[in-house]
Amino acid sequence: MNVHDFSEKAMNGKEISLSDYKGKVLLIVNTASKCGLTPQLEGLEAMYKKLGGANFEILGFPCNQFLRQDPGSDEEILEFCQMNYGVTFQMFSKIKVKGKDASPLYKYLTEQTGGKKVEWNFAKFLIDENGEVVERFSSKMKPEDFEDKVEALVANVK
């Protein structure tokens, strides 16, 4: 089993199989619109513009589990991200990332990184082109703090 075995609903309601991303490095992030870390969307978008394309994608998953910092509808969240941070990477429908109701994808991601629950908004999981979890970055780590690791992984995609 790996990340490519999961499907998630995009904000437009369409179910997307993560197997569509085979051969690409992924950065999976739980986002929030009303969090002190929300400005990380700017850094994520900059990374996406720099590295995105044939070998790299960012997948954003809004979550309202941390102090209800993403209370809006999918449409409101997407509009906020696009208007305020120019987000062009794929955003998915709001999900739960911890607890008994956590999405199967996030249960898998946390199992693969030692079982530690997602601690806050903007936890990041780096996935290689084969769907294997490579590394987890804390909420407080800004995209520019680990961009070199992402870039090195993307450069190794054949």
From TrEMBL:
The keyword Hydrolase does not apply. Pfam families: GSHPx. The keyword Thylakoid does not apply. The active site is at C35. PROSITE patterns: GLUTATHIONE_PEROXID_1, GLUTATHIONE_PEROXID_2, GLUTATHIONE_PEROXID_3, THIOREDOXIN_2. One of its GO terms (biological process) is cellular response to oxidative stress. Keywords: Oxidoreductase, Peroxidase. Signal peptide: none annotated. GO terms for molecular function: peroxidase activity. Residues 1-155 form the Thioredoxin domain. InterPro entries: Glutathione_peroxidase (IPR000889), GPX_AS (IPR029759), GPX_CS (IPR029760), Thioredoxin-like_sf (IPR036249), Thioredoxin_domain (IPR013766). Belongs to the glutathione peroxidase family. This is Glutathione peroxidase. It comes from Listeria welshimeri.
